[in-house]
Amino acid sequence: MQYFGQLKGLSASAAREWSTTYLAQVEMSDLAKRRVETLSGGQQQKIQLGVTLIGNPSLLILDEPTKGFDPVNRKLLLDMVATHAKAGATVILVTHQMEEVERLCDSVLLLKDGRNYISGDIDEVRRKFGEPIIDLEFQGQLVEQAKSYRIKRRSGRQAELELTAHADTAAVWRELAAQPKLVVTRFEQRMSRIDDIFLRIYQHDQETS
User: Quick one: 2-105 is in which CATH superfamily?
Assistant: First the structure.
């Protein structure tokens, strides 16, 4: 990494200091003298990201930067990229992980068949193409089939509810309140996430083709 730092204009001492600090951040200090080809795939990805970040460039182009990472390392590297973005760097992120897009990006471009399928500001895209989702936390028994909603995801005492046709939030609340064995502890409405929007539209196109 020191070599690439010098290629980017850093002095030998500055490049060495930057590399040492970065390796400590990604918990690879003990591997500093190892050849890159002897490292694991994930470790090589960390080195590649480090080379990209050397010198605090104003433009970062990252292609699937966290592919194959475990959750801990994925969060670590996303935090590092987010820090550079907050410092003013422009980040162009190519990824299939839409939660990364929502976390790091201000705007999104979704491609389908090589064409611009959906693009725009993240919040604008969610408002234009999304649907209301209710995040629910509860105790007791939640009715699976209802007139006003269907369960999109469920995990333990948490669920995401989609509204059925012509239903509104008030109708969902009334129906939940009428369930005798259910106690609602959180009821919060939001719009669909970017990955929900893409999956819904893409699946719809497949079904109608």
Answer: P-loop containing nucleotide triphosphate hydrolases (3.40.50.300)
